[in-house]
Design brief:
Elements (H helix, E strand, L loop, with lengths): L1 H12 L4 E10 L2 E11 L4 E5 L6 H8 L7 E6 L5 E4 L13 H8 L6 H11 L12 H13 L5 E5 L7 H18 L2 E5 L3 H4 L5 E6 L1 E6 L1 H5 L2 H7 L4 H4 L11
Parallel strand pairs: 3-7, 3-8, 5-6, 6-7
Antiparallel strand pairs: 1-2, 1-4, 8-9
Helix pairs in contact: 3-4, 4-5, 5-6
């Protein structure tokens, strides 16, 4: 019992993997991101939502230190690595390249062939398959495998479900759920598939250049700022799916 309490205390005191303090990003005279603070924690999923042009991808790039904020600061905890799955990374479909060769080309230095094969197996993709022959869902899982080769503490995913149908999206997010449970990753995610990702979110930030509202899915769904952006008819997409205990533990 005492060991459990000590473990809980240590977990509670674990610093956030990524912290953003009052960050802004200016492009010319326009503020693309305006004074946003947030924390990305290990084992939790943070979802960024908002209309097109709201600054979601720009904020994600700031969190990854791909871009520097015009104001404010982004800090990564010591030893934190991030696996990034960018938006619109198209496959080189005309090149004769296998899935295993693709991972070998983009793997960080020092990653063994055994580690690459392990990620391919977890993704359910055969290494000998030509990438031109992969389905849309298999291609997205291969890109996720590429991000995981960094052995990250945080997975940053920018619209990872792009170009997938509803069944493909559901399968991808089930795969991501399994990986998160296994690896304890923090996840920061941009997606428009509200009905799929919100039930999986621990925390949501609703953006429109600035921070409109934040909180749990249920809190954001009832927030007037969210309703003003998306309308009441979409609020049900943000509500967590109910779980009824019709079984005994």
């Amino acid at each position: 019992m005492r060991r459990d309490k000590m473990t809980e205390t240590a977990t509670a005191e674990t610093p956030p993997a990524i912290t953003a303090n009052e960050v802004s990003l200016l492009r010319g005279q326009r503020k693309v991101v305006d004074n946003i603070s947030l924390k990305v924690k290990r084992g939790e999923t943070l979802v960024l939502i908002g209309p097109n042009g709201a600054g979601k991808t720009s904020l994600l790039r700031l969190l990854l230190k791909i871009e520097r904020p015009s104001l404010g600061a982004v800090r990564h905890a010591e030893g934190v690595t991030v696996g990034y799955m960018p938006q619109n990374l198209e496959r080189p479909a005309r090149l004769p390249m296998t899935a295993e060769r693709f991972l070998a080309l983009y793997a960080p230095r020092g990653v063994s062939s055994g580690a690459r094969r392990e990620e391919l197996e977890r993704a359910g993709v055969r290494g000998a398959t030509q990438i031109a022959g992969l389905s849309g869902g298999e291609w997205r899982k291969l890109l996720l495998a590429r991000a995981l080769l960094r052995r990250p503490a945080v997975l940053a995913l920018d619209e990872p479900d792009q170009h997938l149908d509803l069944a493909g999206r559901a399968a991808f997010y089930r795969h991501l759920d399994s990986l998160r449970r296994e690896g304890g990753y923090g996840v920061v995610l941009v997606s428009h598939a509200l009905s799929l990702v919100m039930a999986r979110a621990d925390h949501i930030l609703c953006l429109n250049g600035h921070l409109c509202c934040s909180g749990s899915p249920a809190e954001v769904a009832r927030d007037p700022a969210y309703l003003a952006l998306f309308g009441e008819h979409l609020s049900d997409d943000l509500m967590p799916w109910p779980h009824r205990h019709n079984h005994a533990h």
